[in-house]
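Two proteins, back to back. First:
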Amino acid sequence: MKKFDNVTILDHPLISHKIAILRSVETRTKDFRELVEEITMLLTYEAFKDLPTHEVDVVTPLVKCKQKMIPENSVAVIPVLRAGLGMVPGVHTLFPTAKVGHIGMYRDEQTLEPQEYYCKLPEGVEKMRAIVLDPMLATGGSAAAAIDLLKSKGCKDIRQMSIIAAPEGVERLATAHPDVKIFVAVLDEKLNENGYILPGLGDAGDRLFGTK
């Protein structure tokens, strides 16, 4: 895969360790869900590094000082339903005041292209940093369509966070939206003939919610 300036692949022993457990067929729903949250926390730390801040006065037990804080109503996380929901608690653990919107996409089994069926975004999202959450970046179609939708609503500061990505999906998204920074925990080998990531981890939504 060619190198893209807007793509960050996290390379960290803690992530590698957690991904190994996440992939295993023996990992139960509860543990799978907790691992998704933990990996999302690590992604969030990286994706939030350049968030705008402002100075506030803080009174410590000893003295008053200046301290940088993230302004309220400046961040919205947008999970792509349904698997993206599993990443929201990981963001909220580090930044509990982040607003939450929802975009519903399903993949047409014949064309593998995304179809939108739901969209509910926070008021004023166009003024916030919008962070799209989807644990699996496979073909890149759903992520690209979700970002297209956010741009149509006026969003200009957009990030994408995924846990596992295929090279095909990263290339498609990075090319379609070069202004969007993409954060991925691990880059896998390829897509199979059905558009699933290999080695991957199966269907993230089913494993998060115990539906299979």
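And the second protein:
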Amino acid sequence: MYKPFQKHLEEEIHRRFDLQPMPLPDDLERQVSERGKNSATIQSWCYSCSQLRKLRYTYIDGGTAIQVFNSVIYPSHHYDIPLLGIDLLSFNRRRNVVVIDFQPLFRDADYQAKYIEPMRKMYESFDDLAQNLGMKFYDANQYFSKYLIFAKAEADIVPTRVMEAFKVYVNKYFLMLEEATPLTEPSDIQRIVQAQKDYDQYSAERDPAHGLFSSYFGHEWAERFLYEFLFEDARPVETTVGRRRSYAISYRSATGH
């Protein structure tokens, strides 16, 4: 369902950047779950270049039961711009969730004015996909902008309206990166290093998809995938398992998985 989105992102990144592959362990790069009618394949890709510290994306293909395309783009530590976060999910083609956002590293007024407010016009042109849905797993005021695309979409608009929004947001993000001025002060760069680590820690502790990964590919694999690939700057903490388990239960309740 979301393969055209993956294809568009791949075409754009290879056209714009001199990418270097970031190798993954074979079992994290691709894994297959054999669960009868609920079998699925998960495959991931990861790159870096001078402008991007890490560009990762993952596709889960479980036939009509589940289709997921997820990507996060981390700019180099020499840039203070937001991260680009993408989550496109479909369960039985009836429950389709779309999340696209410039995820801010900081909440101060100057940062918001510089990087988030320029999204407003773009956001307003897709107001039908800005449904102001409640967040069950995250604090909407942390690492999300007020101009994020967050919608439950009918399957028939995914290849049209959702794809249009996806292309516009991706293009705007790369233009923002091109126009950004690299940081040179060591203290400013270190601030970004810490901010991206904090993002990974926050995300790893709350990631609701961990329950999905566990159900298809096993708990041990899901833990490695979370901490060795998705959010590699995060570290497991004692309270994380219980918190994530409660999120996973809510996630399965919401999605039927």
